[in-house]
Amino acid sequence: MAEVFFFLASIGALAGAIGTVTLRNPFYTVLALVCHLLSLAALFLLLRAEFLAAAQVIVYAGAVMVLYLFVVAYVGGGEDPIRAAGSPGLRWASALFAGALFVELAIAVLGTGLSALGEEGAGFFPGFGTPAEIGRLLLTEFLLAFEIASVLLLVAAVGAVVLARRRTGLEDAREISVADLLRAGDRSGLPGGEAGTMLEAEGPPNR
Amino acid sequence: MSVEWYLVVSALVFSIGAGGILVRRNPLVILLCLELMLNAGNLALVAFARAHGNQDGQIFALIVMVVAACEVAIGLGLIVAIYRRKLPIDVDELRELQG
Question: What is the CA angle A31-A11-A99, rounded to 5?
Answer without folding.
Answer: 95
